[in-house]
Amino acid sequence: MYWIKKAELPTLNLVNDFYDLLSVMLDENLSEFQYIIDGEEWRIVKK
Prior knowledge:
The protein is an alpha+beta fold and 47 residues long. It contains one helix and two strands; from the N terminus they run αββ.
């Protein structure tokens, strides 16, 4: 593990949902990141 600058993120090979997770980490109004199964699809829920 190592620290990188936020501006460098687009140059990295990140998981598809990384920016959704990052939004939860950076938004003081959010504290949860979940996958909910909705029929045959997985939805991301942020709370």
